[in-house]
Structures are given as structure tokens and as C-alpha cells.
Here is the input.
Amino acid sequence: MFNQREGLIIFIILSLAVLTMGSVSAATVHSVNSTINSSDSHVATQLLKTHNLKSTTKSVDVIYVNTAGNDGTGDGSADNPFKSIKLAINSAVNGSIIYIASGTYSGTNNTKLTIDKTLTIISPDGTATLDGKGTYNFF
Here is the structure.
């Protein structure tokens, strides 16, 4: 039916879809450490409207990940994103939104992910790929 690689790709896509739907439907976006800028505010507002959620305050913790980012010097902002999904998750607080830019994410800092809080993880253009290279699990 499917070879091992195709099966892994389908599993990853379905896992991300379920993770995103589950966290969005269960999330109540609330105030956390940093405020969002005007462009993020529009995106967060659209996200809230799309999923019929109500914000309890005016701010949301937004974290960015990009394959061109830097885990050593990055701060998770749009202008200075993290390179790894793991650092974004570890830096996030309950209710955070993590934007993952298009690209392929692999290696130990993008696998064996533990999500122990309510997060919304989004790839705005839908082309982020998690590649365990047949060795690593993601969750």
C-alpha cells in the first residue's frame, strides 16, 4: 500500500493536522509575557474568529521558527526567529502561537518533541516538513 517513507510523511502530516486542530479547539488564548505587534494582532484576531474563540486579554505570546533562524542568538521574534521547533516549544507558555516557516526541519532539536501545554502551531503557507530521517520520532 505505502512504502515506509510515504507512510511516515502521511503520519507527520496527519499528526500536525490533529495537533493543530486539537490545540486550537481546546485553546483559550490569554495574556502572557510579550505583546503582539500590529501584523500579528491581525493574524491572531483572524485565528480567534476562525475557530470561534474569545481572547480573555489583548496580548498573545507569538514565537517564530525559521530554518534560517538561530537558536543561539534568536529570540523567537519575527525578525530574529529560532531555528528549532524544540526551542520554540520550550520557550512557549500556555496559549502561545508558534509560526513555523516553510522548510524542512530535522535533527534532534526538531524531533522527540514534548508538548505539555496548550499551543497553536501553524505553518502559514503549509509547507513546513518534519523529517525524522527514518530514525527519530516526533512526539
Q: What stands out?
A: The first strand starts at residue 62 and ends at 65. Helices lie at 4-26, 38-50, 85-91. The chain has a mean pLDDT of 73. The CA atoms of residues 102 and 128 lie 4 Å apart.
